[in-house]
C-alpha cells in the first residue's frame, strides 16, 4: 500500500487514529504513536478530555465586614490617644 498523500511512495506506517497509510514524510510520531498530520492537529487542538474542566481555585477571602473599626484603629495607632490626653491635660 502506498501513502495516502503520495500515491507513488510506499507507506511505512498507518495513522493510529484514522488508519491512513503514511510514508516516512507523512508520519507524525508522538511518543511512539504514529498519527497523520490532520489527526495530530486535531489532537493538539484538544489536549484535554472533554468534561474535565479545571475549576479555578478559590482564594481565601479577606475578613471584610468582620473587622471591628474601633479595634483596628486602636491597634494601628496606640500612642495617639495617650499623647492627645497628655497634651490636653497640660
Ligand atoms: Zn489520521
Ligand atoms: Zn506521504
Structure description:
With 90 residues, this protein is α+β, with helices and mostly antiparallel strands. The protein has a domain at 1-46. The chain contains three helices and four strands. Strands 1-2 form a two-stranded antiparallel ribbon. Strand 1 (13-14) and strand 2 (21-22) form a beta hairpin. Residues 3, 5-6, 9, 22-23, 25-26 line the site of one zinc ion.
Judged by helices, strands and strand pairing, the structural class is alpha+beta
Strand-residue proportion:
5-15%
The SSE string, one letter per element, is: EEEEHHH
Strand order of the largest sheet: 1-2
The hetero molecules present are: zinc ion
Number of helices: 3
Roughly what percent helix? 25-40%
Record field, number of beta strands: 4
The coarse silhouette is rod-shaped
Rg from Cα: 35 Å
The biggest beta sheet, please?
A: 2 strands, antiparallel
Helix and strand layout, with pairings?
Blueprint: E1 13-14, E2 21-22, E3 28-30, E4 33-35, H1 37-45, H2 69-76, H3 79-89
Antiparallel strand pairs: 1-2, 3-4
Brief write-up:
This protein is α+β, with helices and mostly antiparallel strands. Helix content is 31%, strand content 11%.
Please name the defining characteristics of this protein.
90 residues; 3 helices; 4 strands
Amino acid at each position: 500500500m502506498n501513502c495516502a498523500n503520495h500515491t507513488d511512495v510506499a507507506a511505512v506506517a498507518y495513522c493510529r487514529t484514522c488508519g491512513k497509510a503514511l510514508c516516512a514524510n507523512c508520519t507524525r510520531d508522538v511518543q511512539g504513536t504514529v498519527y497523520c498530520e490532520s489527526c495530530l492537529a486535531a489532537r493538539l487542538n484538544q489536549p484535554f478530555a472533554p468534561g474535565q474542566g479545571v475549576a479555578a481555585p478559590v482564594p481565601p477571602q479577606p475578613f471584610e465586614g468582620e473587622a471591628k473599626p474601633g479595634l483596628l484603629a486602636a491597634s494601628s495607632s496606640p500612642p495617639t490617644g495617650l499623647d492627645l490626653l497628655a497634651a490636653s491635660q497640660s
